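Support case: user asked for a sample of complex input and structure output to validate their parser. Sending the pair below.
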Amino acid sequence: MSRGLRLIPIILLLFVLSGLAWRLIKPADTAVPSQMVERPVPQFMLAAALADKPGLAAADLATGQPHLLNIFASWCVPCASEGKVLQELRRHGVTVDGIAVRDTPDALSAFLARNGDPYARIGADRQSDVQIALGSSGVPETFVVDGRGVIRRQYIGPLSNSNVPGVLQELEQLR
Amino acid sequence: MIAETGLAALWLAAGLAAYQFLLMILALRSSVGVARPMRAVAVIQGVLTLAAFAMLLLVFARSDMSVALVFENSNSAKPFIYKVAGAWGNHEGSMLMWVTILAIAGAFVALFSRRTGERTLVAALGSQAILALGFYAFLLIASNPFARLFPAPPDGQGLNPLLQDPGLAFHPPTLYLGYVGLSVAFSFAVGALLTGEVDARLARAMRPWVLGAWILLTLGITAGSYWAYYELGWGGYWFWDPVENASLMPWLAATALLHSINVLAARGALKAWTMMLAVIAFSMSMVGTFLVRSGILTSVHAFAIDPERGTFLLVLLAIYVGAAFILFAFRGANLKEGAPFELVSRESGLVVNNLLLSVILGIVFVGTLYPLFVEALSGEKLSVGAPYFNAVAGPLALLVALLVGIGPLLSWRRERRPVLGLLKVPALLGASALVMSIIAAPSIGILPRAGFAVAAFLLAASIMPLIARNPLRAPLATWGMVVAHFGIAIALAGMAANAAFSSERLAIAKPGEILSVGPWQVQLGGVTPTAGKNWTAIEAELRASRGEGIVTLTPETRYYSDPPTQTNESAIRTFWNGQLYTVIGNQDSSGAWQLRLWWKPFVTLIWAGGALIAIGGALALIGRLLLSLRGRRREPEWRRRYA
C-alpha cells in the first residue's frame, strides 16, 4: 500500500469530524424558511369564531404595527401548551391574532377558558382554506407579519418559552 | 450515602483504568511481564464500575429525589419496573451503563482470554483501559449521574411516556451490550497492530466477542424496530431515521467483520482488512452514541441537545478513532497476507460479501450525514429519506441476499464441489416465485417482486449446506449459519409482502360507521374515557370481521400528566397471515373520530426473521465455545506456515 492510500481513512475521518463539530457549534435552526416569507399575506376575510371577539381579515394585519398570526385549533394538544407562551408575549405588548382551524364556537370558548386567551381577533377557518393559502401545513404554526402585512417569518410547531426573546426582538426591529 | 458510594467507586475505577494503561506502556517499552497484575486490575475495575451502576439502580428504585437525575427522570407514581428502567432512560444513566458494560467486558477478557499471545493481550487490555478512561472522565466531568439536589424536591418530573414501555427496559441495554462488545474487537485489533501479531489465533480470540456483539445488535435492532412499529403508531417498521441508522451502521460493519474474521481464523488471510473492519465497527458504535447523545440530527430519538457533552464525546471519538487509524496507517499496511485463494472460492465469496456490506454501510453513512454536510457547505437545507435509502441500498441488499445463498456452498481455496447442481432447486423456486408474482400481482413494484424471488431462492439455498452433507454430523456453527441465513430469507419475504400488499385506510368515522381495509370490515363501536396509574385516555372499540367471526380491538390515545404528553397506543391483532393495526386520532368538530387502519400481510415475518438471525448467531457462538472447551484441534500444516 502506498503512503497516500494509507492516509485516506484519516482524511475521511477529519472531514467527518469537522462536519460534526460544525453542527455542534452551530445547532440546527428549527425555523423553516417558508416560500411565503417576504410576501404579503394572501387576501382573506374570516368571520368571527366567537360571538364576543371580532373576526380576521388580511387588512387587519396591515395596520402599521407588527402582528403575530397564530394558526391553532381547540382539538390540537400542543396548542394548549402554547397558550402560556402566547400570553407571555401578549404581556410584552405583542398583538396576537388567531385563526381557528376547523373549530366550533363551543369547543373554542371552552379551550380558551381552560388555556387562557391571548388573541385580539380570531377568524374561523372552517375548511382550512386560509391555512392552506398561507402555506401552513398543520397546527400550531405562527407567522410574524410586519406593519405592511408582509410575512417575515414562519414558525412550525408550538412556540416555547425559549422562543420568546427571539420573537420579541424580531418584532421590536419591525416596529 | 448511596449516591456518594457510587461516585467514589467511579473515581476509583477511573484511577485503576489509568494505572492499567500505564502498565501497558511499561510492558510495550520493556519486556517486563505485567499480564498477571494487568488481569487483576481489569477485573477490579469492572467490579467497581458495576458497583457504581448498582448504586444508581438503587437510588432509582428507592425514588431518592435528592439525586438530581432521579428528580428529573422519575416520579413516585411510576410502576416499579419503569422506576428502575428510568436509571438508563436518560443521558447520565445511559452513559454510566455504557462504561459499566465496557469495564465488565474488559474484566471478562482479562479472566478468560487465553488464545492470543501475552503481549497482544496486555496491549488489548491497555486499549480497553484507555477507552474506559475517556468515558469515566466524561461521566465525572461533564455528566455526573450522582449529583445531589438541596433541598430535596417532594416528587420527580417523570419519564417521557414514549419510553414508558417494557421495550425500554431491554432495548437500550441490548444495543449497548452490542456496541460495547465491539469495543473488545477494537481493543484486540489495536493490541495486535501494536505487537504485530495479527494471525488466526487473534481472530479466534476476537470471534466470540464479535459474534456476541452482533447477536445483541441484531436483537436490539429487531426489538427497536418492533417498538417503533407499535408504539409510534405510524405503521412502519423502519424509518431510516438517523438514530435507527446509527444502530444499523455498527451492525453492517459487525456483519462484515463476522464474515472476514472467519477467513482470518480459517485461512490466515484478509489480515489488514479485518483489522480495519474491527476498528470501523467500534467507530460506528461511537458515532452512533455520539449522534444519539449530542442530539445534533433531528430525530424521534433526539433527547436533549447539549453542546458541551456533544463536544466531549466528539473529542473522545476523534482521539480513539484517529489514533486507531494512524496506527493502522503505519502498522496495518505492513502485514503479510496469509494463504492465497482462487477467484471462485469461499474466500472470494466472503470478500464480495464484505465489499457489498461495506458499500451499503457507506450508503447509509453518507445518507445520514449528507444533509449536515450540504448545509455546512452551501447553507441549503434538505433531508434524505426512505426513497434514497430504499432505491440505493435496496438492490444491493437483494444482491447480498442472493449471494448468501451461494457463498456457503463454495469450498475454501478453490472450488471443488458441484455448486451449480446444488443450486438447481433453489433457482427453480426463485424463478417460479417471480413468475407467480407477475401472474398473481402484476402491479407491484420491482423491488418487492425481486424480494419475493430472492426470498424464495434463499429459503431453499440457505439449507443446502446441511443437505450437501450429513446434517447430524454438521458442526453447530454450520447449523447456526444456516438458521441465520434462513432468517434473512424469512425477513426478506416479510418485507416484500409488506411493501407489496399492505393496505392503509385513513378515515373520519362516527360511532356505528363501517370502514373497509384489505379483506376486513371494521366498525367503530364507541369511544369511552379510561385511566391508568399515571395517565388518562380515550379508548375506541373497533369490531373487525372478514367473514369468520368478529374480533375486537381497542386503540387508545393517552394523555400523561408528568410531563404533559399525548401518545397513541395502537391496537394490533396478529393472525397467521398478517396483522390488523389500528390507531385512533382526534375528534373533529362534528363528533367524528380520525381512524387509521392497516392490514399488513405477513409483516410479522420481518421480526421473526430478525429473531432467527440472532438465534443462528447464538447457535454459532455456542458451537464455537463448546469446541474451544473441548480443547484445541490440531493446527493444519498451512496455518503453521502462514501464522
